[in-house]
Write a structure and sequence with these properties.
This protein is of the alpha+beta class. It folds into 2 domains: 36 residues, no CATH class; 236 residues, no CATH class. The protein is built from 9 helices and 21 strands. Strands 9, 10, 13, 14, 15, 18, 19 and 20 form an 8-stranded antiparallel beta sheet that branches. The protein has a 5-stranded antiparallel beta sheet with strand order 11-17-16-21-12, covered by helices on one side. The protein has a 4-stranded antiparallel beta sheet with strand order 1-2-3-4, with helices on one face. InterPro entries: BURP (IPR044816), BURP_dom (IPR004873). It comes from Brassica oleracea var. oleracea. This is BURP domain-containing protein. Keywords: Signal.
């Protein structure tokens, strides 16, 4: 049998045993005793992904990827032979084979057929091989203007953010977290698109450029017009990911569920770790008055945690940061219309390194480093902690 290139040998060897190693399977393997929060589970199936199944078959002729359209010859063949690698999409068009060092632990390999948004992707990453058939579209941008992210603590609030940003109401003082306390809140966080942007498999995500130096390439990949509102939003997300860390904070932007799991486990361990999110009984609940229920507040963690905030981007990207001296609470809430919420709150005991003009200080009328500052998590955000 002729020897094959290391890259293709890897593709062939792992496809047969790991083709079903989905992001959910990766989570269950890495964290078998940690339930997946609903906020993350809802991001497994993108609105812009073809729901038809995709099959991966390994034989003497190479690897065949069938997009599941039910048409003979409708798949994409990756053949390994003595002369090298030949990829045939069935239409006589070439296909790009790329290797990436990735942005997280491990590297990635991508085989892409067709144009971005209209292709079949075979991605090889640390989590295995994922075959992903993209729909003919992508999430539709609905015009959310980029502004200072209140969960990135080295940014100052804009002049109008205190009154215009509903997330301003999520900040409060720890002393106010008592039964009977009333607060006006809205937990659903807009991500700039008409539907929830979803996770890409790590093998695919790691072949996508995600840095300011390649921003023009990124816009072309997603067919986004330079200078548009969507372009500005994407640029803001990348800049936040590249910004310097605050104080002793350790931060990382996860472009896949697998990389989020790896980062969180690397900071907290995997034997006794939980991930939780805010849950509201009604979808897209409006701003309303809530009261902290008599059942009372429960402290979940009082040391270190990793908080992951969902960013505004065409696919799911999370800004994750670990900071010491934080407490995590479960807060039961009852809305004025009978709506119930299981809110998650994070309290920062040391804010001395935050921007003195941060939104939290304007809302609460306090100075950095004087009192613990707390905030509720929007529904799409996640906090990890040890127990």
């Amino acid at each position: 049998m002729a020897a094959c290139l290391p890259l293709i040998c890897l593709l062939v060897s792992v496809t047969a045993i790991a083709a079903d190693f989905s992001p959910e399977r990766y989570w269950n393997t890495a964290l078998p005793n940690t339930p997946i929060p609903n906020s993350l589970r809802h991001l497994f199936t993108p609105d812009f992904t073809d729901e038809k199944s995709t099959n991966v078959q390994v034989g003497k002729g190479g690897v065949n990827v069938n997009a599941g359209k039910g048409k003979p010859g409708g798949g994409t063949a990756v053949n390994v032979g003595k002369g090298g690698v030949h990829v045939d999409t069935g239409k006589g068009k070439g296909t790009h084979v790329s290797v990436s060092g990735g942005k997280g632990p491990g590297g990635g390999v991508g085989v892409h057929t067709g144009k971005p948004g209209k292709r079949t992707d075979v991605g090889v990453g640390k989590g295995g091989v994922i075959v992903h058939t993209r729909h003919k579209g992508k999430p539709v941008y609905v015009g959310v203007k980029p502004g200072p992210n209140p969960f990135v603590y080295n940014y100052a609030a804009s002049k109008t953010q205190l009154h215009d940003d509903p997330k301003a109401a999520l900040f409060f003082l720890e002393k106010d977290m008592v039964p009977g306390k009333e607060m006006n809140l809205r937990f659903n966080a807009e991500d700039g698109y008409d539907g929830k942007t979803a996770f890409l498999p790590r093998g695919e995500a790691e072949t996508m450029p995600f840095e300011s130096e390649k921003f023009s390439e990124i816009l072309k990949t997603f067919s986004v017009k330079p200078g548009s509102g969507e372009a500005e939003m994407m640029k803001k997300t990348i800049e936040e990911c590249e910004a310097k860390r605050v104080g002793g904070e350790e931060k990382y932007c996860a472009t896949s569920l697998e990389s989020m799991v790896d980062f969180s486990v690397s900071k907290l361990g995997k034997d006794h770790v939980r991930a939780v999110s805010t849950e509201v009984a009604q979808k897209n609940a409006p701003m309303q008055r809530y009261i902290i229920a008599a059942a009372g507040v429960k402290k979940l963690s009082d040391d270190k945690s990793v908080v992951c905030h969902k960013q505004k981007y065409p696919f799911a990207v999370f800004y994750c940061h670990k900071a010491m001296m934080t407490s995590v609470y479960a807060v039961p809430l009852e809305g004025e219309n009978g709506l119930r919420a299981k809110a998650v709150a994070v309290c920062h005991k040391n804010t001395s390194a935050w921007n003195p003009n941060h939104l939290a200080f304007k809302v609460l009328k306090v100075k950095p480093g004087t009192v613990p500052v707390c905030h509720f998590l929007p529904e799409t955000h996640v906090v990890w902690f040890s127990y």
